Amino acid sequence: xxxxxxxxxxxxxxxxxxxxxxxxxxxxxxxxxxxxxxxxxxxxxxxxxxxxxxxxxxxxxxxxxxxxxxxxxxxxxxxxxxxxxxxxxxxxxxxxxxxxxxxxxxxxxxxxxxxxxxxxxxxxxxxxxxxxxxxxxxxxxxxxxxxxxxxxxxxxxxxxxxxxxxxxxxxxxxxxxxxxxxxxxxxxxxxxxxxxxxxxxxxxxxxxxxxxxxxxxxxxxxxxxxxxxxxxxxxxxxxxxxxxxxxxxxxxxxxxxxxxxxxxxxx
Length: 267
Description:
By secondary structure, the chain is mainly α.
């Protein structure tokens, strides 16, 4: 710097310099000075359990005025929370209402939607059987609603056509299960084989692909085996029960008029 006459002035005349240890980088998070901590779940524990453990430790050791926040995948998982279950339920309701509008019936969509529990059961068994966790990547389970309902639609739609031809409910359910067996197996196998590369993926991002692929394969196996046996049964039960409900005559409280003897005849 220069003085009032243009001459240079030494900095030592204005300030003193001392060497003190200090961090080379001060990290900030949401505008506050922060310390970044990176961790991972131990073997045999899920990401949700690790987040819960870190919360307990932070609440017990952090002094007053300090708090914690999440970033990256942990932040997404915390924000999602239980919303995946809500989204799954809304997906089931939406598919049910669309099918009800298409078939103009309540019993037929109910028979179709009975395939969804078998798909979810197969996905859960495959995921936990392989030792994977119910993490954020496994939330693609919503896809199983459409995939499982597809098999149910193939059976129920054909059974409805048989009913229009004059078949009984039992005959329509049996023929639909028999004639739709091959198309369902072929389409399901094609989808399963197309998803196998995700289930056995290696390299960067392999764990995410394992969760998605394993869940879809297990769900398709469940929806393509158990559903083929139970959907015709549920179709029969829902159709029979709905017909009985529609054909039921509500009892009346009025008593029938008493018969009177005809004129000219002794009572």
